[in-house]
From TrEMBL, chain A:
The gene is LOC111488590. GO terms for cellular component: chromosome. Residues 524-535 have a biased composition (Polar residues). GO terms for biological process: response to UV; transcription-coupled nucleotide-excision repair. It is found in: Chromosome. This is UV-stimulated scaffold protein A homolog.
From TrEMBL, chain B:
Residues 273-285 have a biased composition (Polar residues). This is DNA excision repair protein ERCC-8-like isoform X1. It comes from the Eukaryota. Pfam families: WD40 (PF00400). The gene is LOC111496429. WD repeats lie at residues 97-139, 184-226, 308-349, 395-427. Keywords: DNA damage, DNA repair, Repeat, WD repeat.
């Protein structure tokens, strides 16, 4: 009884598996898979049946079936120990059928699926080996064999993950070490840092105090005045107060210049301190040191310091010193060697760039700097601009700079200069300008510095000829397309005003862009598309009608042409069909003439062909995956080489032979 | 099992047969061992395996990449969880200054101790190595590729290496002098397999690519026997002594058709009674029926006899059973044949081989009481019943053809080497131990074993006891 039941269940599993693997999808249907799993879970005998069925399916001569059954195998393999032990017993067979590593047992037909099957099988093998290799020697062996002897490429998922994990760990450890070392350093010179900041703070406070005390002494008098004479109107009083507040903002003058300078200096120092304090705090927060006591105390103190620094800074800013400006001035000094931002519009930067040019000139070993820069006057113009405070220049365009310079210093020989400038090419700035137009040879081994190098003998008189220099300095110039200006749409909007969208041809809201007058009316009303124009637009009705008529006529013409074309095609097709029909009829006749049996065969063949064709149209099947696409050529060749036609031609040949014979010997049989 | 132990303690069961029973139990449950992994250092197919004859502990392997390695199979070098890994103690390969240039086809231990081992290679050389210094101590240059080398485990008066080569002549290399002592000519093609008789130190058996198996007595010129596959009738044997002879004749008549443990045991007894008397000189004397003709023919056998073949195609493997009475041969005609050494008859046992591979020498193995034959059949190893030829086990684990198998009597383990460069260990499954414990769980059995306590501690005592059962060789 139990046996019977088992057998029935086994059949169920078998049917399920067969159904699951009989599909053209790249996945097993999840519901079927679930059903298989639930059925298999119920008893061991079913699992055995499942394993057997799956192995049988793996032997099927179709990669798709193998692929799907491999997916099912993997699902069960990862879940059931019994299934693992069953599969592992003939793992080599499974691998042969799924990886296809044996040359005499290649993977079957649909090549695309076969390659997917192979890669999947390799992936699964690796996964299985990682998870269960320790329990099954066969798994280890198979994995080793494919990897080390056949040199299959495994995805190496786990190893990669482990390596990535390790790298991350290493990075974390390193950053932790760095933090720790910083922490240790901080521990070492905590007091000195604190002292330094404290002294800076004190200094800045003193400075502020001095400034304010001076101001106070001045400001006290009017204030007193104010208090005593309180009969004045409130407006005046308000003005007065404002003025006072304004007066509190200390202005720099000759008296307190020294103090302000000091203040600026200290302020700068303080902002640096603020940054470093923030860094220290972050270090303290992130580090996990054993010395928590020190950490906490240091953190607390740092936070205090930061707060006081912030307070002082605020005070400084309130006191109205022009620190931002001063900061800029400092930048000017500092940015000496730095690359100026491209297209910078600040005076400071232009100065920096000028200095840079000087440096470059020096390095280039050019002695002709003064002489040849006379025409282009780059350096002086920059100064001029700065002094005059005229327009901003972009450092890239020397030509513009020159023109500006012209504006600034328009004093000497304007006519010649202008003429020359009109001729002068506009080029980008570069160090080659130092040797612009020079005819001198250049000493190759002189660079303006006395350097004693010990790399052997140096010919200090070596020169590079001028033509060589000129050759080296040949510039390339690139053609730059200038952007056309895109016209705004300028269609009138409902809420008033004109549409300001800039589109090349068609505005998405108001149709094609046409020139319009100031009120948004188009100049040229005869534009082709009139449907798009709003209906409230005024328009000549006659014109409209005419256009409509023209359009109608055109459409009709078009339609007629199309129809004619279609008719022609249909005719052609009909003709072709007729020819085909005729051909077929001839062939059939020939076949009928040959033997009755072959004709019957032919009929049968045709019907089956039709049936299979209809089935193919209806649904994609596994068999269809295997079958090659039949082309017209194949069909023709089939027809030509088929039995019927061969027979008929042979018959015809013999017939004609007989006829010839008959003709030749009419009175003989 | 426990009944057996009790019987042995009581003296009802001979310790010998007890051990044999346990061993055959274990052999029948061989499977790929999961907890014993030999880490193969070879980068070519493993051609030869041998465990040393003195301790049964050191496994010597020779491979196609001209490397030979020695493993300690009793002590794992390290273990990963359950899996004990056996790394080679040392390996010699091409990098060695006197190493072989081409594939090592055979690597054998010096039978007396583990101080020397011998390797024969396709580079026409036979090297004798000192194990401790891994240096070549003697070197023989042969005229062709060496297919197989063999040393007699019985020899007391000589230390000759028999070498089967591409050449038609079999050469015996004398280690003590470093020269060829004998050149045995008779084969018409290369010699793929060489085996010393297990019963006489003077008898050498060679199998050639011409399909002939020849027996040589190295004290005389020429071969004294060529096995003929068509000669399958046993002649009448001379009566040795009363009942044994009777039994023997009946057993012999049945032998070709079917075999059983009983018969083999009888044969075993016969060996014991015969003792050392199976020397070829005495053998010839003991066969009066044919003795006269053979006596006359010996210097150069009859030409018809001389042309006899034992296999169609080459003889790729030879193996003498432990008692020296039977000879197994494997041929490139994919057949295994069992020969009666004494009469030189084909016993016509039909081994259910599927396919043997043909172009390489094979190494066969037998279990301790010659009950099972292990033969490499392409990528599998099959265990056949020696007397019926029925395949009792098919061991599949290799991914390419297996070249050699070796049965370790001591541990009842099988070692196999194949073209996939692996050396696999097949050991008795642990299920057999479970089987015993299950039997213990049976109350009747518990009664018999005298365990009156609750069965739980009994089971535990079993599991602790099991590994400690020492399966020592049968004491006499």
């Amino acid at each position: 009884m139990i046996m019977e039941q088992d057998r029935g269940d086994g059949a169920k599993v078998r049917v399920l598996i067969q159904k699951a693997t009989n599909s053209t999808d790249s996945e097993v249907h999840p519901r079927l898979l679930k059903a298989i799993k639930s059925v298999v879970r119920s008893s061991d005998s079913e699992l055995r049946v499942a394993a057997q069925t799956l192995m049988d399916l793996m032997k099927r001569d179709h990669s798709q079936v193998r692929y799907l059954s491999l997916l099912v195998i993997d699902e069960l393999f990862m879940r059931s120990k019994l299934f693992r032990s069953l599969v592992v017993e003939n793992l080599d067979q499974l691998l042969t059928l799924s990886v296809g590593f044996r040359r005499n047992v290649p993977l079957p037909a649909p090549a695309a699926v076969a390659s997917i099957l192979r890669s999947k099988a390799i992936e699964f093998l690796e996964k299985w080996n990682d998870s269960f290799g320790i329990y099954h020697r066969q798994l280890r062996l198979g994995y080793d064999y494919l990897r080390n002897i056949l040199r299959f490429k495994f995805p190496n998922i786990q190893a990669n993950a482990a390596r990535r994990q390790q790298e991350r760990m290493k990075r974390e450890r390193r950053s932790k070490e760095i933090l720790l070392s910083k922490f240790e350093m901080l521990k070492g010179n905590f007091s000195s840092i604190k002292e330094e900041i404290q002294s800076t703070l004190d200094e800045i406070r003193e400075c502020l105090d001095i400034v304010h005390s001076k101001e106070d002494s001045k400001a006290m008098i009017p204030l007193d005045d104010d208090i005593t004479e309180d009969f004045r109107p409130s407006e005046l009083r308000q003005i007065r107060l404002d003025a006072l507040k304004e007066g509190e903002i200390v202005h720099e003058n000759n008296d307190n210049k020294v103090i302000f300078d000091a203040l600026r200096e200290v302020y700068k120092l303080m902002s640096k301190h603020l940054v470093s304090i923030k860094e220290w705090i972050s270090v303290l927060v992130r580090v996990d040191s054993t010395d928590t006591r020190f950490r906490d105390s240091a953190l607390r103190e740092f936070i205090d310091i930061r707060n006081s620094l912030c307070a002082v800074k605020k005070r400084c800013e309130e006191s109205g010193c022009t620190f931002t400006e001063s900061a800029n001035h400092d930048d000017k000094d500092e940015d000496f060697w730095e690359e100026g931002p491209v297209g910078a519009t600040e005076n400071g930067d232009s100065v920096a760039c000028e200095r840079k040019k000087e440096d470059l000139a020096m390095i280039g070993g050019s002695f002709t700097y003064e002489r040849k820069n006379e025409d282009l006057v780059v350096a002086p113009t920059a100064n001029v601009i700065k002094n005059a405070g005229t327009e901003t220049i972009s450092e890239a365009h020397v030509g513009k700079a020159v023109q500006n310079g012209e504006v600034g210093s328009s004093d000497s020989a304007p006519s010649l200069r202008n003429k020359l400038l009109a001729d002068a090419p506009v080029i980008e700035w570069g160090s080659f300008l130092n040797t612009w137009d020079s005819k001198m040879d250049i000493l190759a081994n002189q660079r303006g510095l006395e350097l004693e190098s010990h790399w052997g003998r140096v010919d200090y008189d070596a020169t590079i000829p001028a033509e060589k220099i000129a050759e080296l300095n040949v510039r390339t110039s690139l053609y730059k397309e200038d952007q056309p200006e895109i016209q705004p749409c300028r269609a009138p909007l409902r809420k008033g005003g004109l549409c300001q969208r800039r589109d090349l041809r068609v505005c998405p809201f108001h149709g094609p862009i046409v020139p319009r007058d100031d009120e948004g009316r188009p100049f040229d009303t005869s534009s082709s598309l009139d449907e798009t124009t709003p209906p409230d637009q005024e328009m000549g009705s006659v014109e409209k009608l005419v256009k409509q008529a023209v359009k109608n006529v055109r459409a009709r013409d078009k339609e007629a042409a199309e129809k004619r074309e279609r008719d022609k095609q249909a005719l052609k097709r009909a003709k072709l069909a007729k020819i085909r029909e005729h051909n077929e009829a001839v062939l059939r006749d020939a076949a009928v003439a040959s033997t009755s049996r072959s004709s019957g065969l032919g009929e049968c063949m045709e019907t089956t062909g039709e049936m299979s064709g209809s089935a193919g149209n209806k649904k994609k099947t596994l068999a269809l995956m295997l079958r090659k696409k039949t082309l017209t050529k194949d069909r023709i060749s089939q027809r030509l080489l088929g039995i019927r036609s061969r027979d008929s031609t042979q018959r015809q040949l013999t017939l004609s032979q007989g006829a010839n014979y008959g003709d030749a010997f009419p009175n003989q049989w | 099992m426990w009944k057996d132990i009790r019987d042995r303690e009581a003296g009802k069961l001979r310790p010998n047969s007890f051990a044999n029973r346990v061993k055959s139990d274990r052999v029948s449950s061989l499977q790929l061992s999961n907890h014993k992994d030999i880490v193969s250092p070879h980068r070519g197919s493993v051609n030869s395996l041998q465990v040393d004859l003195t301790e049964g502990r050191y496994l010597l392997s020779g491979a196609s990449d001209a490397s030979a390695a020695v493993f300690d199979i009793q002590r794992a070098s390290h273990s990963e969880g359950l899996i004990a890994k056996y790394q080679c103690l040392f390996a010699v390969d091409k990098q060695h200054e006197h190493g072989h240039k081409y594939a090592i086809s055979s690597a054998i231990w010096y039978p007396i101790d583990t101080g020397l081992f011998v390797t024969g290679s396709y580079d026409h050389h036979i090297n004798v190595w000192d194990t401790n210094t891994t240096q070549v101590v003697v070197n023989f240059k042969l005229p062709g590729k060496v297919y197989r080398t063999a040393m007699s485990s019985l020899a007391t008066s000589h230390m000759l290496i028999a070498a089967g080569t591409e050449d038609v002549q079999v050469r015996l290399c004398d280690i003590s002098s470093g020269a060829f002592s004998h050149t045995l000519s008779g084969h018409r093609d290369g010699v793929m397999s060489v085996e010393w008789s297990a019963s006489s130190e003077w008898v050498l058996i060679t199998g050639g690519c011409d399909g002939a198996i020849r027996f040589w007595d190295i004290r005389r010129a020429g071969c004294f026997r060529v096995l003929d596959q068509s000669q399958s009738q046993l002649g009448r044997r001379p009566p040795i002594s009363g009942w044994t002879a009777n039994k023997l004749s009946t057993s012999k008549s049945h032998l070709a058709s079917q075999g059983s443990n009983m018969k083999s045991r009888i044969l075993h007894k016969k060996l014991a009674t015969n003792g050392n008397a199976t020397k070829p000189s005495s053998t010839t004397g003991k066969l009066p029926a044919k003795g006269s003709t053979r006596q006359r023919l010996h210097p150069g056998l009859l030409s018809s006899q001389d042309r006899a073949v034992s296999h169609y195609g080459a003889v790729t493997g030879l193996k003498v059973t432990g008692d020296g009475m039977y000879l197994l041969s494997a041929g490139s005609d994919s057949r295994l044949k069992l020969w009666d050494v004494e009469s030189g008859c084909n016993t016509l046992v039909n081994y259910e081989t599927v396919r043997l591979h043909t172009n390489k020498p094979l190494q066969l193995a037998t279990s301790q009481d010659s009950a099972l034959v292990f033969a490499p059949c392409m990528a599998n190893i099959k265990a056949f019943d020696m007397w019926t030829g029925k395949a009792s086990l098919t061991l599949s684990g290799h991914y390419e053809a297996v070249n050699c198998c070796l049965y370790s009597f001591q541990d009842q383990e099988l070692y196999t080497g194949g073209n996939d460069r692996q050396i696999l260990v097949w050991s008795p499954s642990r299920d057999s131990t479970e089987l015993w414990t299950r039997r213990i769980g049976n109350p009747v059995q518990t009664k018999i074993t005298g365990a009156t306590d609750c069965p739980l501690p009994q089971g535990r005592s079993v599991s602790t006891l099991m590994p400690s059962i020492k399966l020592c060789p049968p004491c006499t």
